[in-house]
Amino acid sequence: ELVKAKRKFNPFLKILxxxxxxxxxxxxxxxxxxxxxxxxxxxxxxxxxxDEKEKCRLLIDKKIFGKILIAKRGTKRGETEFIDxxxxxG
Length: 90
Hints:
alpha+beta; four-stranded mixed sheet; two-stranded antiparallel sheet; 2 helices; about 40% strand
């Protein structure tokens, strides 16, 4: 079931968290007649937990995203590596 991400209010810091959805970023990549929609989940170490893996599989199976990339920290400073979810987790 797909549920819209709600904004979260932290009463102690008096801030409203906007980026509380999954995946972290959405890319609209033009291809021919339309767009390819790619989801990007950002993880420092590149590993997804069980719930995130299930969410990724659901989003790909329902054809909401063409592919999901996992962004992780690279070996050099300021470098980012992208891993395809299907290649890593099947």
